[in-house]
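To: structure subgroup
Subject: Chain for Friday's discussion

All,

I'm putting the inputs and outputs inline so they're searchable in the archive.
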Amino acid sequence: MRIAFIGGGTMGEAIVKCLLNKNIAMPANIIVSDVRQSRRELLSREYGVSTLADNRKAIEGADLIILAVKPQDLAQAMEEIKKPAPQQVVLSIIAGASLSTLQHGLKHPGIIRAMPNMPGQIGEGITVWTATTEVSPKQREMAQSVLGALGEQIYVADEKYLDMATALSGSGPAYVFLFIEALIDAGVHIGLPRNIAEKLVMQTIVGSTHTVQKTNKHPAELRSMVTSPGGTTAEALLQLEKGNFRSLLLEAVAAAYNKAKHLSVSSSSMGEG
């Protein structure tokens, strides 16, 4: 499997690294195109992959083309690699770029659209993806193996779930990081040394997540197990409920979803130009 990356930024590099670490691809089978010389030099030095500044030349002979440019650079990138070979498939990780936009802009039917998230940079992410009907079973298997290198992956038949995933798992790490940051600050506020607060919070987050995964119990049931009547946890949860913690989180995800839908509409309009 020969893979060409159009864009060698943070996420492109993360995929390269995960593919190599999990022996899904060898450096000789990967080529990365990026306009920045500094990125080309870094990727070549760190991972032993080939690099180019010419997008069109980069896709020659590739089985899988991974679009990993910034959204504002998508139109130019599509113009430069327009009409790939019929046997090639294009996998896009660009937020908001719909299948129809990509098909129209690339003049190519075989498109896969994926929404990975930031923990994929260390192989602990989750990716939701879909594909056009023109993508063959073999090409889907190829995409599945590539996306699986980033962590878990879920295929969905309906593209509408990509915008939902963008709001929940795509943006989700930021919500979790904010929660971790606030919890550490709360520990410091009540008198804990910061290094101790950080360790307590980090292991609490990791342990709680693994508890949900390994016990298969509903989070509400597990929360109840921690909450003694009239105890400290009950008092803390009361304050969170007073602050509309659940409602704020729901509203935040809904706002992110609406923004994702707006970006998708905007990208569709761009593709029709």
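Points worth raising on Friday:
The mean pLDDT is 94.
The CA atoms of residues 48 and 140 lie 27 Å apart.

D.
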